[in-house]
Amino acid sequence: MPSVSPVPPSTPPSRASVVDALRSAGCVFAEDEAELILTTARTPAEAAAMTARRVAGEPLELVVGWAEFAGLRITIEPGVFVPRRRTEFLVEQALDRAPGSTVVVDLCCGSGAVGAALAAGLGPVELHAADIDPAAVRCARGNVAAAGGHVHQGDLFEALPGELRGRVGILAANVPYVPSGEIGLLPLEARDHEPLVALDGGADGLDVLRRVAAEAPHWLAPGGCVLVETSRHQAPAAVTAFERNGLTASVAVSEERHAHVVIGVRP
User: What is the signed CA dihedral for 27, 31, 35, 37, rounded to 10 degrees?
Assistant: First the structure.
């Protein structure tokens, strides 16, 4: 974002001054963002500081310390991937396809938003979340605590307790799927403030997805499903990866949210 003079910390910021600062910095939803900043800040000085951070290009969710996701307030800490609202579609698909699941895994969990939302929608479940990034693991522990969730650190399935094999009803894996060569095209907010490991999916964006597809059948219960988010043009290759590993695959699409979810079911 361009350099814009923030609201002076000594001046109690008015809504109009915050909106003007945000709009000048290129924030499309300046009015809504100003409202969030002013209602979250505990003091005028904090509101001014938060406005300055947002003007400097920091994601709004990091500025206010939380993101709304599936009706929940998810704590977001520095260096952790910010859950996208389009990923709510993945949660909805999981709840529709496996409403009676009692064992849920949130792989590549980031903040733990998907796992927390699934637990909220299902009721009492055995919830496990995992991520390779220590910062994400720390953040997720707080977000899934209310659901009694367990968070593990490690590389994909290596992080999970072995006793989960063959028992998982819903395996949500919001894997990184941006092709390596397209990372530079992402918005600055993502490139500068989110971990590369949560964005970079390899040459065609599907490296991690293929690893999940290869291992998921060993962890799913009969009839259990694995769900991943992809782009529109990646979806056919993702379906092929699932089918090659013995899963029955399909694609769910939400045009409104620009969301494509590939679903694999263990027969």
Answer: 20
Is the CB of residue 106 less than 8 Å from the CB of residue 157? no
Q: Map residue 192 onto helix, strand or coil.
A: helix
Q: Half-sphere exposure of residue 30, counting CA atoms within 13 Å on the CB side?
A: 15
- The sign of the CA dihedral 50, 52, 54, 57 is negative
Report the helix count and the strand count for the chain, using DSSP H and E: 10, 9
CA distance 206 to 204: 6
Q: C-alpha dihedral over 201, 205, 210, 215, to 10 degrees?
A: 30
- How far is 127 from 111, CA to CA, in rounded Å? 14
> What pTM did the predictor assign?
0.90
Confidence of residue 3 (pLDDT cuts 50, 70, 90): very low
Both tokens assigned to 254: 């939400």
